[in-house]
Design brief:
It is built from 34 helices and 32 strands. By secondary structure, it is an alpha/beta fold. The longest helix is centred in the last third of the chain and has 22 residues. The two termini are 61 Å apart. It comes from Marinobacterium lutimaris.
C-alpha cells in the first residue's frame, strides 16, 4: 500500500541551516527532525522511524514534499524541552493551550481529534471529578490533562494527589503496581494499551481536544503551511492517506464501547460532568458556604459558557429556563429570544417530535438517557447530528422539576467515521463492496444456503483486453469503463445478492436463493451470466474512440458453509481463466480438474526456479536467410531439459514464467548467454559478424532498470552492441508508449537493433509506429501458414511488406516451412526468411557443424 511503501527513512543526510523558512538548492532534501515519544497508536518509534497515526501522516507528507525525516526519541517532558530549544523541528500530538501558544508555533488544520479518559483497576469506577476525592491520580507531567484536572479539582475543592510521570505507560504501570489509584490518558492510547496493564476505562471522560504538530516559536511556518495543505486536501477525499492512516491504526485495537459513544462522552467532558457534579457540590455546601457558593456559581457560568456543547435546562412544561453560549450561537438567537420558548418555536416539526419524545421520557419516568438526535433549526435546512445526554432535575424532596441536557455536535465525526467505514468496506471508484465485505457477505450467504436447503453461486467476472484499453486510451478511460460496467451489472443484480469489485478489472457476484436441484441452479447461473455479458458488451465511447468490452465469467455453486469463502472465490477464478482459454467472452463452471492444473502450474513454477539454479536451461539458435540464401542472423530460443532428462516445451514454461515474474531472471540469463555466444563466435569463420536476436518480454521492458541491465550485460561480456537485436512483440508496445520509445532510443545510441515480432497480430498505430526506432518488421507465422489458401492472410502479408518498404524497414517472415510459401513471399517482395524449411533451432555446436555441412 501507499502507506507502507513510504514509512522508511531516506538515507542521504544533507546538512543545512535555517530549517524553517530557509532556502537551499532544489536537489537537496529538507531534513526535518521529529520528536518521538511513545504514545501508541498516535505516535511511536518503529524500526528507527516515526510511526503511528501522526507518524504515518507525516511520512506521507514528507514523501510528497521530499522531506527527510529524522526521528529523535525522547520522553514527553524532554520532547517539549527539545522543541523549546529548537533542537527538534516538529513534535507531533500536541494540543494548543494559551501557555503553549506563547512557547511554540502551530499550524491551523487539526491533525486529529482526541479526548481524555480515566482508567482504573477492575471494580473501581470514576464518574465525575467528585469521585477523585482522596485519589492518587497518575498523570503525564506538563500535559493538558494535568493542567485541566488541577484547575477543576481545585475549583471544586476536591482533595486529589497528582503523581507526575514522564510517559503514559508509566501512568498505567503505576496503577497496576498500586502506587496510584487512577491513570489519565488519551482514549487512543488507553484503548490500545489498557488490557495489557489490566486496566479498564472509567465512565469519566473529558477535554475533547484538537491535536497538532508543534514547531519552535517563530519558525516552522513553511512546514506548517504544507502540513495544513495536505491535511485539508486529504480530509476531503475518503480514500486519501489521512483516512488510510486512521483506518490502519484504529483497526488494530477496538474501543471498549462504540466509537460514536466515545465522541459523545468526550463532548460531555466540559459540560455534563462539571455541571451535575458541581450541582451536587453546591447542595452540600449551600448551607455553610454562601460566599463560596457565589464564587463557584460565577466559576461554573464561565465554564459552561466556554464548553463546546449545547447545554440547556427545561422545566416540566418543556420551556427553556437556561441555555449556554454555544446553544445561543447554534440557534442564532439572543438568550432573551430563547428563554421561555419551547422546541416548536425554535426547531423544525420533525426535530420537535424527536426532542419531545425524549424529554417526556426523562420528565415522566426520571430516566437518564443517552441518544443520538438530529436537530434542524426552524429557519435552516442544515441537519446536525447530536449525541445527547438528558437527566432529570429534582428538588430537595426528590420531585422532578425539569431536565438538564448536554448535546454534542457529532456531525463531522460521523461523516469521518462513514468515510473510514466506506474506505474499509467499499471500493472508492465504483462504490461497490470490496474484498473484505465480499468475504463477510459470502460467508453469510453460505450459511443461509445451508439452512434454507438451496444453492448459491459465486461468479468471477474479468474484463477481456482491459489492459489494452487502459494503455491505449489512458487510466481515466479505464476508470470510466469500470464505473460503467459496474453500473450496468447492477441493473441485473437483485437486492439480496452482492456485487463486489475484487480488484483491477475483476468483479465477484454472490448469488443467493438458487434452486435446490443442482442442474436447475446451473441453468439459472448460465442465464444470469449471459445477461451480464450482454450488458457488459454495450459499446463504450470515449474521446472519439469506441470500444466493445467483453467479459469472461467463471462460476461455482455452493450449498452450505463446508467450503471456506476464499476457496469458493478461488474456484470461480480458476473457471474464469478456463473461459479465457476457451476464447474469452464465455462462461465456464468450475471443475476439480482445474485444481489439478493449478497444482501443475505451481509445480512448473518451482521447477523453473530450480532449473535456473541448476543451469538446466540452454539456448538454441535458428538461422535466418536472405533471398540469396545467405545467413543474415540467428534467433536465440530458450530450451529446458530437467536434470531428470524431461524436455519441457517453451509453450508451457514461458507463460508460467511470465505470470510469476520468473521471466525477469530467465530473460537476464538468456541475454547474458546470447551475448557471451556472440563473443565466442566473433572469431568463427562463418558466424563472425552475424547478429543474434533475443526476445524481450513486457516484464523486462517495463522494468525501470531495463536499459541499464542491457548495457551492463554488453559491457560485462564485451559483446558488440551492433550484433545484438532485441525482438519486441507488437502488443507489448501499446503499454507506456512514450517510455518504451525513450528506452529504445537510449539503446539505439549504443548500437542495439530492434525488431517488431508477430507484426499484424496486435494493436499497432501507424502514428507511433513511425516514431519507434525499429530496424525490422517480422511477419507472424500465423499469416505465413495459410498464405496459399487464405486471401486475407495473403493481403496482410502484402500490406506488411509494403509498409516495411515505406518506412525503410527490413521485413522477415517466420514459420516458413515449404518452398511454395517461400516463393509466394518472394513474389510479394519479402526478402528475408526464417523457418523449418531453412533450418531448425540448434545448439551452438550443432549449428556450427550444420553450417560446415552447408558449405
Amino acid at each position: 500500500m501507499r502507506l507502507t511503501s513510504r514509512l522508511t527513512h531516506t538515507t542521504i543526510a544533507l546538512a543545512f541551516t535555517g530549517l524553517f523558512g530557509a532556502s537551499w538548492p532544489a536537489f537537496a532534501q529538507q531534513v526535518v527532525r521529529v520528536g518521538v515519544y511513545d504514545n501508541p497508536p498516535k505516535i511511536r518509534m518503529e524500526s528507527g522511524a516515526v510511526s503511528g497515526i501522526f507518524g504515518d501522516l507525516l511520512s506521507e507528507i514528507a514523501a510528497e514534499e521530499d522531506w527527510q525525516l529524522e526521528a529523535v526519541p525522547c520522553s514527553w517532558d524532554d520532547c517539549l524541552k527539545l522543541l523549546r530549544n529548537g533542537d527538534i523541528d516538529l513534535l507531533p500530538d500536541v494540543a494548543k493551550t494559551p501557555e503553549r501558544l506563547n512557547l511554540f508555533s502551530f499550524h491551523q488544520e487539526p491533525a486529529l481529534l482526541a479526548w481524555s479518559q480515566v482508567y482504573t483497576r477492575a471494580g473501581t469506577d470514576v464518574h465525575s471529578p467528585m469521585d477523585l476525592e482522596g485519589q492518587r491520580v497518575a498523570v503525564l507531567v506538563d500535559s493538558v490533562q494535568e493542567a485541566y484536572l488541577i484547575q477543576v479539582t481545585s475549583g471544586f475543592e476536591v482533595d486529589t494527589r497528582f503523581i507526575e510521570v514522564d510517559s503514559l505507560e508509566a501512568a498505567f504501570d503505576a496503577v497496576r503496581e498500586g502506587s496510584a489509584d487512577v491513570a489519565v490518558a488519551n482514549q487512543l492510547f488507553g484503548d490500545f494499551n489498557a488490557a495489557r496493564f489490566g486496566l479498564e476505562p472509567a465512565a469519566m471522560v473529558f477535554q475533547p481536544v484538537d491535536l497538532y504538530y508543534a514547531a519552535p516559536l517563530n519558525s516552522g511556518k513553511e512546514l506548517g503551511a504544507r502540513i495544513d495543505h495536505w491535511l485539508r486536501e486529504w480530509k476531503a477525499e475518503p480514500d486519501s492517506p489521512y483516512y488510510e492512516a486512521l483506518s490502519r491504526w484504529s483497526g488494530e485495537h477496538k474501543a471498549a464501547i462504540p466509537a460514536f459513544l466515545l465522541w459523545i462522552l468526550a463532548g460531555l467532558a466540559g459540560a455534563l460532568l462539571l455541571a451535575i457534579g458541581f450541582v451536587a457540590l453546591l447542595r452540600r455546601q449551600v448551607a455553610e458556604k454562601t460566599d463560596s457558593l457565589k464564587t463557584s456559581e460565577n466559576y461554573l457560568s464561565v465554564l459552561l459558557s466556554n464548553v463546546d456543547s449545547l447545554i440547556y435546562v427545561k422545566g416540566t412544561d418543556f420551556r427553556y429556563n437556561y441555555v449556554n453560549q454555544r446553544m445561543i450561537e447554534f440557534l442564532g438567537r439572543s438568550e432573551a429570544e430563547i428563554i421561555g420558548k419551547r422546541d416548536e418555536d425554535l426547531f423544525s416539526d420533525e426535530t420537535v417530535i424527536g426532542l419531545r419524545e425524549t424529554d417526556q421520557r426523562v420528565i415522566k419516568t426520571g430516566e437518564r438517557i443517552m441518544e443520538e438526535e438530529v436537530g434542524t433549526r426552524r429557519d435552516s435546512d442544515d441537519h446536525r447530528t447530536f449525541l445527547t445526554v438528558k437527566q432529570p432535575l429534582r428538588d430537595e424532596d426528590g420531585a422532578i422539576t425539569g431536565l438538564v441536557g448536554v448535546s454534542t455536535d457529532i456531525t463531522e465525526q460521523l461523516k469521518s467515521e462513514q468515510r473510514i467505514h466506506r474506505l474499509a468496506f467499499y471500493d472508492s471508484l465504483t462504490g461497490l463492496p470490496n474484498q473484505r465485505l465480499l468475504l463477510e457477505r459470502l460467508e453469510e450467504a453460505a450459511e443461509k444456503a445451508e439452512q434454507g436447503d438451496h444453492h448459491g453461486a459465486v461468479l468471477f467476472i474479468d474484463l477481456d483486453n482491459f489492459r489494452d484499453l487502459n494503455d491505449i486510451l489512458g487510466h481515466k478511460a479505464g476508470d470510466r469503463l469500470l464505473v460503467q460496467v459496474s453500473d450496468r451489472m447492477q441493473l441485473r443484480v437483485r437486492e439480496e445478492d452482492t456485487l463486489a469489485r475484487f480488484g483491477g478489472d475483476e468483479f465477484v457476484l454472490v448469488v443467493e436463493g438458487l434452486d435446490a436441484e443442482r442442474g436447475t441452479a446451473e441453468a439459472q447461473v448460465e442465464h444470469l451470466a449471459g445477461d451480464l455479458r450482454k450488458l457488459i458488451k454495450v459499446p463504450f465511447d470515449y474521446d472519439d474512440h469506441s470500444f466493445e468490452p467483453t467479459a469472461s465469467i467463471g462460476a461455482t455453486l455452493f450449498q452450505g458453509a463446508d467450503q471456506p469463502a476464499g476457496d469458493l472465490i478461488k474456484w470461480a477464478e480458476l473457471a474464469m481463466y478456463q473461459a479465457k482459454l476457451d476464447g474469452r467472452n464465455k462462461t465456464c463452471f468450475y471443475d476439480p480438474a482445474m485444481q489439478e492444473e493449478l497444482h501443475s502450474r505451481a509445480k512448473l513454477e518451482a521447477g523453473i526456479r530450480l532449473g535456473l539454479e541448476q543451469n538446466e536451461f540452454e539456448l538454441h539458435y535458428q538461422p535466418q536467410f536472405d533471398a540469396e540464401h545467405r545467413l543474415i542472423g540467428l534467433e536465440a530460443l530458450v530450451r529446458w531439459e530437467t536434470s531428470a532428462g524431461e524436455r519441457i516445451s517453451p509453450g508451457l514454461f514461458i507463460p508460467v514464467a511470465e505470470s510469476t515474474g520468473l521471466i525477469r531472471p530467465l530473460g537476464r540469463w538468456i541475454l547474458q548467454q546470447a551475448c557471451e555466444q556472440l563473443v565466442h563466435w566473433s572469431s568463427h569463420t562463418q558466424l563472425a559478424g552475424i547478429r543474434v536476436s533475443v526476445n524481450i518480454s513486457a516484464h523486462q521492458l517495463h522494468e525501470t532498470g531495463f536499459v541499464a541491465e542491457v548495457i551492463d550485460v554488453l559491457e560485462q561480456t564485451g559483446a558488440n552492441p551492433r550484433l545484438l537485436e532485441l525482438e519486441l512483440t507488437e502488443s507489448l508496445l501499446v503499454r507506456n508508449v512514450e517510455q518504451t520509445i525513450e528506452k529504445m532510443a537510449q539503446l539505439c545510441k549504443k548500437g542495439v537493433r530492434f525488431s517488431l515480432d508477430d507484426f499484424g497480430t496486435g494493436y499497432s498505430s501507424l502514428t507511433y509506429l513511425k516514431r519507434l526506432p525499429l530496424n525490422q518488421l517480422k511477419i507472424d507465422q500465423g499469416f505465413v501458414q495459410d498464405l496459399l489458401t487464405d486471401s486475407n492472410d495473403a493481403a496482410i502479408v502484402r500490406t506488411v511488406v509494403a509498409l516495411g518498404e515505406s518506412l525503410d524497414l527490413a521485413v522477415i517472415a517466420e514459420g516458413v516451412e515449404t518452398s511454395e510459401q517461400r516463393e509466394a513471399l518472394l513474389g510479394y517482395g519479402c526478402q528475408q526468411f526464417q523457418g523449418y524449411l531453412l533450418g531448425r533451432p540448434m545448439a551452438p555446436a550443432d549449428l556450427e557443424q550444420w553450417l560446415n555441412t552447408l558449405s
